[in-house]
Amino acid sequence: QVQLVESGGGLVQAGGSLRLSCAASGRTFSSFAMGWFRQAPGKQRELVAGITTSGSTNYADSVKGRFTISRDNAKNTVYLQMNSLKPEDMAVYYCAAGGYITTMGSAIPYWGKGTLVTVSS
Fold it and tell me: What average pLDDT does the segment 53-57 reach?
């Protein structure tokens, strides 16, 4: 069993930055692929960024060049650095862990409860 706890959300002006963190319990963190998803009101959940156990990353087109996902296996933590934030980035951001990160989030066994990111224009 893995428990995921996100932090770092909040209110930021457009153009600003935030760094989200996701702390994982358990000893098997390094064996999981990790992902950040987001869901805005009235919209479907979408994959923002993923990172494999070997450190390979992938990003949604909408965040490429602005967001960076990273992981620190010694701290059992995955991060999402978000720069040049836009109003359309406003959503609840969720951390997820599993054998692999699917685009729609299906079949991913472990999820955090989310952290709200609000971007004012």
Answer: 96
Q: How far apart are CA 119 and CA 101, in angstroms?
A: 26
Q: What are the counts of helices (DSSP H) followed by strands (DSSP E) for the chain? A: 0, 11
Quick one: CA torsion of 81, 111, 62, 75, rounded to 10 degrees? Answer: 20
Strand partners, 39: 92
Are 8 and 114 within 8 A, CB to CB? no
Residue 103, sorted as left (phi over 0), alpha (psi -120 to 50) or beta, turns out to be alpha
- Tokens 């996100």 map to which residue? 6
Q: What is the pLDDT of residues 56-72, one digit of tens each?
A: 999 999 999 999 999 99
